[in-house]
Amino acid sequence: MFAYFFLSFLVVSGAAVWAEPPVAKRVDHREERHGATVIDPYFWLREKSNPEVVRYLEEENAYTAEKTAHLKTFEEKIYKEIVGRMKQTDLSVPYRRGPYYYYSRTEEGKQYPIHCRRKGNMEGPEEILLDGNQLAKGLKFFSVGAMSLSEDHQMLAFTTDTTGFRQYKLQVKNLATGEMQPDIAERVTSVQWASDNRTLLFTTEEKVTKRSDTLWRLTLGKPVEGPLYQEKDELFRVHLSKTRDQKYLVLQIGSTDTTEVRYTPADQPHQALRVVLPREKKHRYDIDHRNGVFYIRTNKGAKNFRMVTAPAADPSPANWKEFLPHQSNVLLQGIDLFKDFGVVVEKSEAVNRLRFIDFQTGKWKALTFPEPVYAASPSANPEYDTNTFRYLYQSMVTPASVFDYDVATGASKLLKQEEVLGGYDPKQYVTERVWAKARDGVRVPMSVVYKRGVKRDGKAPLFLYGYGSYGIGMSATFSNARLSLLDRGMIYVVAHIRGGNEMGELWHEDGMLMKKKNTFQDFIDCAEFLIKEKWTSRERLVMEGGSAGGLLIGAVINMRPDLFRAAHMAVPFVDVMNTMMDASLPLTVGEYLEWGNPNEKQAYDYMKTYSPYDNLEKRAYPAILVTTSLNDSQVMYWEPAKYVARLRTLKTDENPLLLKTNMGAGHGGASGRYDRLREVAFQYAWLMQQAGITE
Prior knowledge:
By secondary structure, the protein is of the alpha+beta class. Helix content is 17%, strand content 34%. Among the domains are: 53-82 and 429-690, Rossmann fold (3-Layer(aba) Sandwich), CATH 3.40.50.1820; 139-283, 7 Propeller (Methylamine Dehydrogenase, Chain H), CATH 2.130.10.120.
């Protein structure tokens, strides 16, 4: 029997000291694709139950630990800095819902938040709804998913994941008695109470592919009923929500480019779902409700969406009335509806804005913000009948701040700003918007932050971050942890590349399917701009991206391995062809509309030109750190493991190539807040060292 790995190490005083990295065995796996034979020698790393796979991952972890042992002091210093700036025992801003004030709090030394409420005011006795620390006892991983409170405030439905695989089980807690119902269902994706406080509707995912596809109903004390609805089309997923006025339960059925909405009155949960508008290819829409009227955000004849109204009794297009027209340079992201006012959320040039309409007068007001580059978004606003709107504001230098906006007076009141302990002074930092010109002439925005006094002489270290997929825009948010970079003279930049929605829906479309390479080229062009304008140099430029952003980094490394000193790829989607050719894997089929269907020859050929795993060559590469988690359900652990195994056989340089696997977590890494910060500290220490910062 031959060995699975050839290990090169020295034994000193009984401890393994790695001289060479672990080498994964090769077992040729053959597959016919479009008339050609594809050989993958590391396909076997998919065998999660194979002890040799686990052993390989653990040996890679041991190798990484050995090769980064010299960073331990630096890593610990960064960790202590981050924790030292954090108010460990803290309270979120309470929000009113009915007779209660709801909030969460953290306690020093404890990993998870405690969800609580007080009746009447914050002087009343505290009721603990869920204590994540108690629920997580004895577990390596714990996460609360959906939470839904009955209208009478007596019943709490919630879901939990204890592996990181994002497979949530549904439970119900009686808040009056403290009694916990037996587990109701597995693989639950969303949940809502009907108005009778006894009927619970929830959705579940398919066991193998994890596609959310089925709607169920439970009346407490009775067996689960259903399926009430089951989506057969593998491109579509379902999600259940409830309008803020509590009038309707809404089932959103969507693919990347098409949606259908069904609804039922919340006080008639046994009534059959009605369709707002039948699905129509490439028509995307969503709804909210106020005073007998549906507000429908639609892209019909409107690339960046427009909004129409229609009576809930008959929302067909014949009854549509224009409420907000389409704007070619502004993305309409949605509307929050209240009894007497509405709040429109829009995006233009990579920043959000909030506009208010008074339904009594028909007049509009817009919030103004003090900085040109910022992030603003709605916060907790469960009450329908209110005269205030809560929102969150922050920038790359302004800590996250919660405000209440008085709709009548137009005044904003600061309720709380994230405390940064140790005398943080935002005036010591600078944030700005910079624009790079892509090779096709398109202007690409970047959000930049640095410590005041950093010189633009080409000598500063620079951390470039990117994502650019799924129409998900990156916001210019604050980060306590990032201060450890900035205080050491490192510049931090977010590249708002195509594939997101920072510049509208066309920005997404120009970075997907057969235009996906725009995403990678934009990132490269941003990097070259930063070097040309003397923000940094190749020798001090590092980059990071996670998930689809890990694909970005992997593609960029293959296209321009000379441009960067180092890269961190977190849970990276790098084995594009193998994953997208396997319809049994989570997410695959539903993402044909984002990446392309490789069963079609034209899409296959295009995707193969940028798939990181398939384009590795014998040449020099920058220093690379790859991090992943064994229980990741979105990007399976074997993608980064295979990538590293293959790259080890091809790279001609002496730069480090490290793989670090969290053996008890999922896509987001460690679930506990302290554990997560330790992961960040390690990653920052490694990247800073590569950029020339060592203390």
